[in-house]
Predict the structure.
Amino acid sequence: MRKLLTLLSVLVLSSLLLAACGGAAPEVPDGTAAPADTAAAPAEPATEAPGTTEGPAPAAQDGGFGQTLETVQARGNLICGVNSQVPGFGFIDSAGNFSGFDVDYCRALAAAIFGDATKVEFRPVTAAERFTALQSGEIDILSRNTTWSLVRDTELGGNFIHTTFYDGQGMMVPVATGFTTLEDLDGGTICVQTGTTTELNLADVMAARGVSYTPAVYEDADSTFGAYYEDRCDAVTTDKSGLVARNTIADDPSAHLIMDVTMSKEPLGPMVRHGDDQWFDIAQWTVFVLFAGEEYEIDSTNVQDVKASTTNPEVARLLGNEGDLGLKLGLDNEWAVNILEQVGNYEEVYNRNLGPDTPTYIPRGLNSLYTEGGLLYAPPFR
Amino acid sequence: MSSLTEVLPPLSERPTVLGWMRKNLFNSLGNSILTILASLLVFWAVRGLIIWVFTVAEWRVIVANLRLILLGQYPITQIWRVWVSLYLLSFLTGNSFAIWVRGAWRIGLFLAAIPVALAFLPFGMQQRLWLVGLAGVGILGWVLARGGGPALRRSVIIGWLLWLPILFLLLRGYTSSEGWMPIVTTNLWGGLLLTLLLTIIGIVFSFPLGVLLALGRRSELPVVRWFSVGYIELVRGVPLITILFMAQLILPLFLPAGLTIDRVLRAMVAITLFSAAYLAENVRGGLQAIPKGQFEAANALGLNGLQTMFFIVMPQALRLIIPILVGQFIALFKDTALVSIVGLLDVVGIGRTVLAQPEFLGLQREVYAFISLLYWVLSYAMSYVSQRLEVSLGVGER
């Protein structure tokens, strides 16, 4: 018996040691795990109270100029943290491929680095774990409908690069009403969730426009949309991407229209780790290439023709005919050509995922070029 | 066992369907009225469900995404590897049936009929051939192992022990990107495949760990006992989801830069460690049910402590707790669904991403109904197998 017990004690002790390394460690304070934010609802940016989901930020663990690009190139693929549950932004299609607006940005970045848009591994991350995954180096970049805010930009050990999608509070109405502007809602009833910034925004915007309405307030998102779909109000309001996702549960999603108005600021964009400015630049200028492609009407079909025939010096520099812009980023000089040829420009990416021909149509609104009254503005390529 | 002594009743008293109905459902006026009312009630209750299943529900979302739900993003060119591991499983099951489950050929035939029946579902021709082959290999294994001696028995046991490593080798591959068996990284494992892998690993590894902890808790050495009690009570005091969050969110922050542990592995370890704590308590219950006389008898025979434990106490204790163990394994199987909350694409996680496909928006009911069906079928299969095991081991009879 003694011998057996000695043997067992050794085994148990060693298994406990393993257990301690394996992550059971329940003695770690778990207030930082933020279980409240696990539902990956796309509407989360508006309703999330800043600071509740984020624990004390540990310092970024690695980084340093040029390190990320080196790691990525040595590994041979880019690891991109995405959402897998938001229609139009990130999901897996029937063939098993990741698809969506945020996903296409990762492809563009892979095209810039490797000249091959397929060299990217998608890592679905939840709202709760996204920042940890970025900090711990598990992903190289986070491209997952994340709202840019000061707290996140500073405390979470990451930097937001340029916004790729300007979300904002939107208004959904049944198509049958024929309403297209907020003014049409004058005297109507609007379903809204109580106690949120959404409710306050609505009051502000409507007051500014001089539209009178009756708010029908509900405790949570489910009952708000439930009431709307039971025709208890003329319109419903929350973030636009949230409206799109919510509308997917409707009996007939095509019977509802999201108006072309935006009532709040929800800039969604990719995020990189603190500390590696070269990586930040690469990620940022990839976004600008998408913008510039649309601005100069270069798309996946004509990029080689434009490259061969262009006389515009800006376009020539962008496409690598002149200068060495790509080399300055530590990339190939063909980087922009690769992005535009393999993924397309911003308009193509947008229309593929969120355009009028898709079931997840969101009017472009602020996500138009500055020349068309939007906010997409690429700095000069020189 | 009792089939030899069973005596059939006289012809006039053998049950027929009509006779049974008359005897049990319509034996008096009151009972007849009750029967009719009850069947109307049942019909009224399930009518909506039947109408929905056969007319309203759009099952095309399942048909289009069946591969995704079953295998996740496992590369289509490498699916043969999943089939090969299933073939090995089927072969070993056939062997085991021939050796240990003598006489229960009806169940064996039923098992073999499952893949053949599945082949009638709308799959491609290739998948149908694979499925029929699966049944064929099982029957082949059964035929080959018939009448085998102890040597065969030993090799089948070794085969089972080897199956798990082989499964992982096959699924993961071992040549990097090139070659005939390229590595399939775990982020491509998903769907039912991932759910089953998490379950199998959880069961296989938490069982020995749980037994050790149970023995440790009954140990006379204070340090061992103290550690076991501490571990069991700590783990049982937190929900599984917390441990999963810890493994996915907090653990990476403590690791040195550049070192990452595979996420699937982390989930497997978390589930195993969680399950082991519960299992330890169940095993302890079994151990405590063994009368002291058994230990004393073993001592009197000259067995040492290890021999007593492994030949006398453990076999009896484990036989006693089979129903509890199976209950726990079924719970573990369903608990693996929690990994979808930490971003792994198990069958529930993949179901949620299927729901985000623009062409199938709003088909929540169909997807969740199908996933529930999968869970039910597999859970029921586990509990059925355990019932057969109890019968053949005579649990509750002697």
Summary: Chain B has three domains: 11-56, 76-183, 189-398. The CA atoms of residues 334 and 375 of chain B lie 7 Å apart. Chain B touches chain A through 73 residues (CB under 8 Å). The longest helix of chain B spans residues 364-393.
